[in-house]
Specification:
alpha+beta; 6-stranded mixed sheet; 14 strands; 37% helix; elongated
């Protein structure tokens, strides 16, 4: 449904009509991410039962993909499976686009606002907070979760050398142990392998223990298959597969977009945990990313220790909560 608004600065639009300029704005963010492309949002919205709103802001200088809950709460679109959420605008336009979005929210008399997983470095919430406060909202902004990432040098050896002494020693030890006396190979899969590797990825998840096994519900599996199809159509999907002695022991689900390899998910054979196939798969993926000319390995949401072992440094994601008293 296309909504109307009395504010000409924020115009609700059919998202399909904005895709070309949306794609360009996403590419020109300070830190481009696949999660803010129309391709990602379109797929994620198919799994989001909330009312969807797409705003063209400040004469198309920015776009906001939003969702409205039954109680009127406004959030960014994409849902829990979308690691980064934010407005889409060029860096210099972020302040004005963010302020205009906050003014629109206030003009709609939105009872509650919850914006999550917004990169701290973008400045979006810094610009929105005073506008909402001036409009009478109680506003709180907090760090929600970290999303570590590692800058990649020109060679894999330089990457390893750049790790801390302990992390460098441990990575080399684990790779040497895995490779000693075994046939080990890693590659990013081609189109013909995609279906079979997605089957393997799902199967490995369900062989895991605890939260990892419970995560892969039937609906989550459908989402992974749909998002893989959408990302592959743009050439962004990277399914990394680690084969050990003829068995696909680990599958990494990632995206290559604007110079960054973003690790979205991974699954490995729990029976091979002692061989550190999980961390090895990441290391080989880093080598593949460097060979491809990518310059950032984004480990996305969560502060798991292995991300720092791989050289990740914190980049915080924020949450804004605002409500009328």
């Amino acid at each position: 449904m296309i909504l109307t608004t009395s504010d000409p600065v924020c115009i609700a639009r059919d998202p399909a009509s904005l895709e070309a300029e949306w794609s360009e704005l996403a590419r020109h963010r300070a830190h481009p991410t696949v999660f803010l492309t129309p391709d990602w949002i379109r797929t994620a919205r198919a799994y989001d039962r909330r009312e969807q709103i797409t705003l063209s802001i400040a004469e198309r200088r920015g776009i906001a993909a939003l969702a409205r809950e039954d109680d009127g709460t406004i959030s960014f679109a994409g849902g829990e499976l979308t690691d980064y959420q934010d407005i889409v605008a060029k860096p210099l336009d972020i302040p004005i686009v963010a302020r205009k979005l906050a003014e629109w929210i206030a003009a709609q008399r939105t009872p509650r606002v919850r914006l999550e997983f917004v990169p701290e470095e973008s400045g979006t919430l810094d610009a929105m907070s005073p506008v909402l406060t001036a409009a009478g909202y109680d506003v709180q902004v907090d760090r929600l979760v970290t999303a570590p990432r590692a800058n990649l040098p020109e060679s894999f050896e330089a990457y390893v050398q750049g790790l801390g002494k302990k992390e460098r020693h441990e990575l080399r030890r684990k790779l040497r142990r895995l490779e000693t006396g075994r046939r080990v190979a890693f590659h990013f899969a081609g189109e013909r392998e995609r279906a079979s590797l997605l089957d393997r990825f799902v199967a490995l998840h369900r062989r895991s223990r605890g939260d990892k096994a419970e995560f892969m519900t039937a609906e989550t599996e459908r989402f992974f298959r749909d998002i893989a199809r959408a990302m592959a159509a743009r050439g962004w999907l990277r399914l990394g597969v680690l084969n050990v002695d003829g068995e696909d022991a680990a599958v990494l689900f990632a995206f290559a977009y604007e110079g960054t390899l973003a690790l979205y998910n991974a699954a490995y054979n729990p029976e091979l945990a002692a061989l550190s196939v999980g961390i090895a798969c990441h290391a080989y993926a880093v080598r593949g990313a460097i060979d491809e000319g990518l310059r950032v390995y984004d480990l996305l949401r969560g502060g798991e220790p292995y991300k720092y072992d791989l050289g990740g440094t914190d980049h915080w994601l924020l949450r804004l909560e605002a409500s009328r008293p």
